[in-house]
Design a protein that fits this description.
The structure holds 2 protein chains of 2 kinds.
Chain A (H helix, E strand, L loop, with lengths): L28 H6 L14 E7 L5 E7 L1 H5 L3 E6 L23 E2 L5 E7 L2 H9 L2 E6 L6 H4 L15 E9 L2 H7 L2 E9 L11 E7 L4 E6 L4 H11 L7 E4 L15 H13 L2 E5 L2 H7 L5 E10 L5 E13 L5 H10 L10 E9 L14 H17 L4 H6 L7 E2 L5 E2 L4 H11 L2 H4 L9 E13 L14 E7 L5 E5 L8 H13 L6 E5 L16 H28 L6 E3 L3 E4 L6 E3 H9 L5 E7 L21 E13 L5 E11 L6 H20 L5 E2 L2 E2 L17 E7 L21 H13 L5 E2 L3 H8 L9 H6 L3
Parallel strand pairs in A: 1-12, 8-31, 10-11, 14-15, 20-21, 27-30
Antiparallel strand pairs in A: 1-5, 2-4, 2-6, 3-5, 7-15, 8-13, 9-10, 9-12, 13-14, 16-17, 18-26, 19-20, 19-25, 22-23, 23-24, 26-27, 28-29
Chain B lengths: L16 H8 L7 E8 L2 E8 L4 H8 L18 E4 L2 E4 L12 E3 L12 H8 L9 H14 L5 H7 L11 H12 L6
Parallel strand pairs in B: 1-5
Antiparallel strand pairs in B: 1-2, 3-4, 3-5
The chains are: A alpha+beta, B alpha+beta.
């Protein structure tokens, strides 16, 4: 009954490559170029109330009273909520939850949410905010890690008397012996300014509370809907089963959205309080205040090296200004130490890390989580020492390569390692031997070349919540219409995860791309996923997708055998068709196979999973799981700069980058990820920096926070090295984070080649270069003086 | 007042609600008057608040949400539309200041369901990753190609200098515009 007629029979496999290895446009690309893609702020919200958040004007204060009585009485106001609405602290790391969606008792940075309103329109919401009265007792506020660590400093959080959220001391191998065996030991200090994701889409949420059922639905810009779901259940004290979280199109994340953020919980609480629908659109400024970016870091790096350039020992101390709340902080400080390993062969590594609370917006995960700043320090010092020993920068790296498979001294597994090939390509493509140190100065323009290496994990082998579930789950649905629908919880935030998953399924089944649909990120429909962070999706969800497709294929081959009246071994699976090996002329279409497969069972849903085995989950030491992964990506890059020696302006002319991503499921997408990563590194290297004056964010917009424009952005040539990882889907590993962290030191080396000056603080702005070239170190203004202008 | 308010930092300083209400409305409702213009080739006549920004008119009144707001005003270029063929930031333009003019948004580019040459090039060459800057980027590039059908790289860079992208590093955006400039507009 109502069965479709199967008149069209495709007797050949699809002519164009539709599976892995193909340069395919994104499956959701047409919506993006036509403007029909709906992001959270674009969702139809007729009748929704207008939400708005009141933020603390104080950097650090006891909150004595939040008087909302007048605001509540204003006509058109439907709800006003304060910290009283939620007494459950939340945070992404279960053992470090110390943030409330709306502040209770204490505000800890300028911009900390203290109250929120839902009103019939924006004007009323603004007026209601203005009617809320705060009574506070101000406390001393600390805007640097050093200030917060002073012996008499007031603790931001009661359980950390010294304002140190996490101190970490690791010692692997015999560093003392390593330094003793070295011919050259050098130590230097490096400094990195705080940087922010500045994803293009500002934060936004839409929440509907069904008062009759007591059910809540939230649409948000998240990278990890699952964390948001858990956080809503926790903070609103609702059953998770009564909550539905949907992720629409998302305009980038880069780590900003890997934690549940306060505005998402506030939007849900407002909807419940108003018993209706609330839309909460954050301004760009508010998105900056939600922060979660890379922390300001002070790094002391010490390396030992033989005359031949062999590393003998590494000792590093890192101090990170973490901001007001825990967030991902303890993971960041752990990553920073763990990923000193895994790139080169170093016999001994000692690491001391300090994550410090401060009265600034909380830091968190940002592309290259934890590795970027310490990689800048390491590669920079490696270069300086090679120069002192008269060794070529590429050569010194070649002398310290790993050999896969291997285990690092801190218990990380390296299963595939394409770094040697990356170095070879970068050396040849950049004309390194002929040009390094030999580029002529043209008038007042100095020119130089520099290079560096870097790496990153393909997802953390141990998830944040160890629930015993697989790391990833994919569901495939095959129905009467002979279409295959992929259901995934993996968040496509623009990195192309839906495309990669679709390519994997198309490859395994051999069917046409157009037969496949993908539905992502609706907790009512799609399986739970651990989210889009630490470059886990291609590796883990890709493996789960391949597993699901193989499971479905087995069913389809059995059905084809039945329809063709042959054994399964005799079935020649052609994807869009099937035939028997003994009689190739007799073919049946995919639709015929699907029809047969549904006999007596109906709609098929098939699951695939992926789990990282325990042996990949890191060392036994405390925090040893951080940095563990089944596959490290490797990258090498060379950067060419020109420097205006009069003005101090650094221009990046060209970048050559090689990435070992294991296998490129979509080479065009890999190129796009590498180019984006390197370019983001360039922003941190030459211009990006959050600036706080007396706790006020002075660069909370896209003009003062200097994201590079197209005019100052170079050509970035990408070369893909395929080391075929033994565990990745078709051998694939990550491609989008590893290349970032090599950029800063490659640029610093290039600037040194051009000017003779080595810069050890980021960003390398024209002011710093000018001062260095003119030997005029600028004296920092005392804090109190610069603060006066900020009122 | 724009959706995000002019400067939300002002919210940090407790203001006078009476002044906020008085500045923004008249007896609780904004003053509206008739706005006549053309959007994507269609003449329109709408009652629009006199202080409405073009971006809010396009998104909230007409439902044309392809035009994005990525900043608090004039910083990022995501809201770029064409006014009489010239690129303009819809977030910094009063709707009533373009009376009688021809407005084009990303929704007006495709014809009979087919992608325009720029839309196709951005799609096929991955000039778009997260897609949030894409409508503004394509509209700015559209204005460029109309006045200069075969621009060089430097001309492309100058024309798109006001459009920020955070995903691509711009390499594939430039390649997309170059590909479009070589392509023949596909007949619907």
């Amino acid at each position: 009954v109502n069965a479709p007629e199967h008149k069209v029979v495709t007797l050949k496999p699809a002519s164009e490559p539709r599976g892995v290895g193909a340069r395919l446009p994104f499956v959701d690309g047409i919506e993006k170029v036509t403007g029909t893609a709906r992001y959270t702020a674009d969702l139809p919200a007729g009748g929704a109330l207008f939400g708005k958040i009141l933020r603390s004007p104080y950097a650090h204060a006891e909150l004595l009273e939040v008087d909302i009585s007048e605001a509540l009485a204003l006509p058109g106001v439907r709800a006003v909520i304060t910290g009283d609405e939620c007494d459950m602290p939340y945070g992404v790391i279960p053992i470090a939850q110390n943030e409330f969606p709306l502040a209770r008792d204490r505000v800890r940075y300028i911009g900390d949410p203290v109250a929120a309103v839902a009103a019939i329109d924006e004007v009323t919401a603004d007026a209601a905010l203005a009617l809320i009265r705060l009574r506070v007792r101000e406390l001393p506020a600390y805007f640097s890690a050093a200030e917060a660590r002073q012996p008499n400093a007031v603790p931001l959080h009661d359980n950390k008397a010294d304002n140190i959220e996490r101190a970490l001391h690791n010692d692997f191998g015999d560093t003392a012996a390593g330094f003793a065996a070295a011919d050259l030991v050098r130590e230097d200090n490096y400094q990195c300014a705080e940087v922010h994701h500045a994803m293009m889409e500002p934060n936004a949420a839409l929440a509907t509370y069904d008062a009759e059922r007591g059910h809540l639905t939230l649409w948000s810009v998240t990278q990890v809907p699952y964390y948001v779901h858990l956080t809503l259940a926790r903070c609103l004290k609702m059953e998770a089963a009564h909550i539905r979280v949907i992720k629409p199109f998302v305009g980038g994340g880069f780590g900003h959205r890997t934690e549940a953020l306060n505005f998402e919980v506030v939007c849900a609480m407002l909807a419940r309080a108003a018993r209706g629908t609330v839309r909460l659109l954050m301004s760009r400024e508010e998105s900056f205040l939600a922060h979660r970016g890379r922390p300001e870091s002070h790094i002391r790096m010490k390396l030992g090296m033989t005359r031949e350039g062999r590393l003998t020992a590494c000792e590093a101390e890192v101090v990170q200004r973490g901001g007001a709340y825990g967030g991902y902080g303890l993971v960041t400080i752990l990553y920073s130490g763990a990923l000193l390993n895994g790139l080169y062969d170093i016999p001994a590594v000692k690491y001391d890390g300090y994550r410090v609370y401060s009265n600034t917006p909380a830091c968190g995960a940002m592309r290259g989580h934890g590795t970027v700043n310490i990689r800048f320090a390491f590669e920079s010092l490696l270069d300086s020492m090679a120069a002192e020993l008269g060794l070529d920068p590429i050569e010194v790296r070649r002398r310290n390569l790993l050999q896969a498979p291997t285990d690092t001294i801190n218990g990380l597994k390296v299963m595939s390692y394409g770094l040697p090939e990356c170095l070879d390509w970068v050396e040849a493509a950049s004309g390194w031997q002929a040009r390094k140190g030999k580029l002529d100065r043209v008038g007042n323009i100095g020119r130089g070349l520099g290079m560096a290496c870097s790496h990153f994990v393909s997802g953390s082998a141990k998830p944040v919540h160890w629930s015993g579930e697989p790391h990833a789950v994919i569901i495939l649905k095959l129905d009467f219409d002979a279409s295959v629908t992929i259901l995934t919880g993996a968040s496509d935030i623009g990195q192309g995860s839906s495309t990669i998953i679709t390519q994997v399924v198309a490859e395994v089944l051999g069917i046409d791309y157009s037969r496949i649909r993908i539905i992502a990120n609706d907790s009512a429909i799609t399986p739970k996923d651990n989210g889009s962070y630490s470059s886990r999706v291609t590796f883990m969800v890709g493996n789960a997708a391949a597993n699901a497709a193989e499971n479905l294929k087995r069913i389809l081959v059995a059905a084809a055998a039945k329809r063709l009246a042959v054994t399964e071994a005799e079935v020649d699976w052609l994807g869009e068709a099937a035939s028997s090996l003994s009689n190739p002329d007799k073919q049946i279409s995919f639709a015929d196979v699907a029809e047969e497969a549904l006999v007596a069972t109906g709609t098929l849903t098939v699951k695939g999973t992926f789990t990282c085995p325990p042996e990949f989950q890191g060392g036994k030491q405390r925090g040893g799981a951080v940095g563990s992964t089944m596959g490290f990506s490797y990258a090498a890059q060379a950067v060419e700069v020109s420097v205006d020696l009069d003005l101090g302006k650094v221009t990046v002319e060209k970048v050559w980058a090689a990435i070992d991503c294991g296998f490129a499921i979509n080479p065009m997408s890999v190129e796009g990820q590498v180019q984006g990563a390197i370019w983001m590194g360039m922003g941190q290297a030459i211009s990006e920096e959050t600036v706080y004056e007396n706790g006020h964010h002075m660069a909370a917009n896209m003009l003062d926070y200097r994201v590079p424009t197209i005019v100052e952005s170079p050509d970035i040539e990408v070369h893909i090295v395929e080391s075929i990882d033994p565990n990745g889907p078709f051998g694939a590993k990550e491609a989008s984070e590893g290349p970032l962290s090599g950029f800063m030191s490659a640029l610093a080396a290039a600037v040194e080649d051009a000017t003779g000056q080595r810069f050890r603080a980021l960003p390398i702005t024209p002011v710093h270069v000018f001062d260095a070239l003119n030997k005029k170190p600028r004296v920092a203004k005392p804090q109190a003086e610069s603060a006066q202008g900020a009122a | 007042m724009g959706r995000y308010g002019a400067k939300s930092i002002h919210l940090l300083i407790v203001g006078d609600p009476a002044i906020i209400l008085r500045q923004s409305s008249h007896q609780g409702a904004p003053v509206k008057s008739i706005l006549r213009l053309a959007v994507n080739g269609k003449p329109r006549e709408d009652a629009v608040a006199e202080n409405a920004l073009m971006i809010d008119y396009l998104r909230d009144v007409l439902g044309l949400t392809g035009t994005k707001q990525g900043c608090d005003g004039g910083e990022c270029g995501a809201c770029t539309v064409l006014v009489d063929g010239k690129p303009r930031l819809a977030c910094s333009t009063l709707a009533h200041s373009v009376v009688g003019r021809e407005i084009e948004t990303i929704e007006g580019l495709s014809r009979a369901g087919n992608l325009s040459r720029l839309q196709r090039a951005f799609h096929e060459h991955l000039g778009s990753q997260c897609g949030f800057c894409t409508p503004g980027m394509i509209m700015a590039a559209e204005a460029l190609l109309r006045s200069n059908p075969h621009p060089g790289r430097d001309q492309i860079k100058v024309a798109l200098a006001g459009n920020l992208c955070r995903c691509t590093g711009y390499v594939k955006i430039i390649e997309s515009v170059e590909a479009a400039s070589c392509a023949v507009e596909q007949a619907p």
